[in-house]
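Record format v2
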Amino acid sequence: MQEIEKIIDYEFKNKKLLEIALTHSSFSTQNSNERFEFIGDLILNFIVGISIFKKFPDKDEGFYTNLKSGYVNQHYLNSLGEKLEIAKYIKYKGTKPIDLSDFVESIIGAIYLDGGLKKTERFVKKFILSNKIEPLIDYKGELITISRKLSGKLPLYEIIDEKGPAHKKNYKVIVKIEGIASKGEGEGKSKKEAEIKAAKDILTKILD
Amino acid sequence: MQEIEKIIDYEFKNKKLLEIALTHSSFSTQNSNERFEFIGDLILNFIVGISIFKKFPDKDEGFYTNLKSGYVNQHYLNSLGEKLEIAKYIKYKGTKPIDLSDFVESIIGAIYLDGGLKKTERFVKKFILSNKIEPLIDYKGELITISRKLSGKLPLYEIIDEKGPAHKKNYKVIVKIEGIASKGEGEGKSKKEAEIKAAKDILTKILD
């Protein structure tokens, strides 16, 4: 317990809260992290959103939404959980690999319940907002998650145009999700860049 | 301005913030309500979620998610906007009817920027959390919104079973969204009840 408190740089007054935040539902359905995950997610979105809003007063809501999703998405939070090695401290009975992003959220919820908003802001600023996010990076990962939920399948990327000489290519890509009417379009100097932009485009259409 | 401040029971120190919160992007793209709507939505979700969590300490995250969506969904917030008659105060150049839920959110964002979290909580408790929500009520409306986004069409309900004598019927309903693999199932004493439960079921599968 003391070890993980050192890692997350927060000492709990009520250790029971930290314990619950680190308990997977396979270990205890009654006192698992899921309730804390619910509030942790809300608090995280609130803190990240307000920080971005204040830091970039001249940007629009599309920019805010994109940058926020760079900081709160499952993939990014899961990497943070790996970096902090929180898996070592989680009570878990099961075989499937667990999603550490859920536990990052439940820890945030527990810090809020134990120490209030100011302390939670401190944690979020230190561990989550401290990294420079290139918001584009995670769109493809985010789209995989959403596509699996909606269609049970992976998103389909297709190059629809390829121009220019070898050293100065320009790609156009579209992305579709089976059964979904909206599609995403993106253009870029590499296939990857065009795909990321296409993923961003369809995500905006589906989620906004 | 004074009139709307009376209605929402909050007096702005900085009237400019209220003005922006009531300006549709068709009237001014630069100073429209959309940025405030972004933070208002986050603050609203945070306040409602935490209130529910504290009020029902023995419930699970599924209950929290459902009840929260009863309070923050577009349909409910739009009705509140109509009840408060905020349309009268909105600067708008256009022909389509506007969605008042966006303005309820931007007003919440403006109160937060002007008065901080405590004053915003006061507003949310007085106007949003004060109504007893039967979380089931809004599932069908919520599903219409989501189905339109995903498939461009309405959800399809189908009665798959009908049992019992006339005064004691039991209905089974399924609901589908075109192109979406998940479907919802519900059972109830009336078609409506079964449909609401089916809508709830598919929403959980799609959104959780």
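The longest strand of chain B covers residues 156-163.
Chain B touches chain A through 27 residues (CB under 8 Å).
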